[in-house]
Amino acid sequence: MKILVAVDPSEHAEEAIRFVKSVEWPKKSELFLIHVIEMKDAPPIMPEGGPSSWDRVISQARGKLFTEAKSFLEHTKKEIVEERALTIKCLVMEGLPGAEILQAVKDYQIDLIILGTRGLSNVKRFLLGSTSDWVMREAPCSVLLVREKLSKVTKGKTAAKILLATDGSSVALSTVDMLGLLNGKTPPKVTVTHVVRKPAYLEGWYWGKGKAAFKQLAEQLLDKAQKEGASHLEEISQRVKGLGMEVDTVLTKGDPAEEIVKLAECSKTKLIMVGSKGFKGGKPVPLGGVVRKIARYAPCSVFLIRPARSAKEG
Length: 314
Known about the structure:
The chain has 314 residues and is α/β, with parallel strands linked by helices. It contains eleven helices and twelve strands. The protein has one domain (2-313): Rossmann fold.
């Protein structure tokens, strides 16, 4: 497995590193630490000697940023190597963080991106962060958005709570495969949930057929969807049990993103796991609105899982 971790001195990025150190990664995994510098982060530049000295002063400022970034990444690398036997490569880039991260994903054929992201208030949480949102939308691989205390999932003395959201598709099986990475000293407690929502076309059908017929059809479709959802939950929960984890299931109705976020808040979940399609016709499948809404409003870390590379390319 190839893992790319975006690194900076922020607390949420530090938590991402703590999480990396807490996981038993597959053998021969490669870890890429990336730090993207931007000239706006350089100290105020005050050239002396007029315009002729500007290029030299700017070059010196850029060189200082690169030197500090390389030193920071090497220190982080040493910190990880002390706990995990991983092959680690340090990458220092300059430009827009989102663009540089996505380019590195392409260049190094990355399977998983790990990004620290701030935990925001209910009012501001929709902002998420331009880099996180950009990467999550366009990355062709799985993305883990790390908020505070995620490392407790694998290193905590008590079982952490994980919410695995499934839409009933085959992609959901990929989430179970990735769940195995999180089986630490104390196996987590996993809640598998499926949300049944009303078919969007029914409102238009109502005006043509009348209230009674509409109600009957709606009840029939809802009953069918609930039975299919219950069957799928049972299948997924059995796979989770096979990992030696405690599991329960929740079947509910409503808006999928809203219900999933609400359940995460009520149960004090540490991590939401949700699947998303990877490629279709050789091109990345656009990220669905449900997944984006979960990532924006979730009170905890979010693991967006896309199918493994072999499955994509097949």
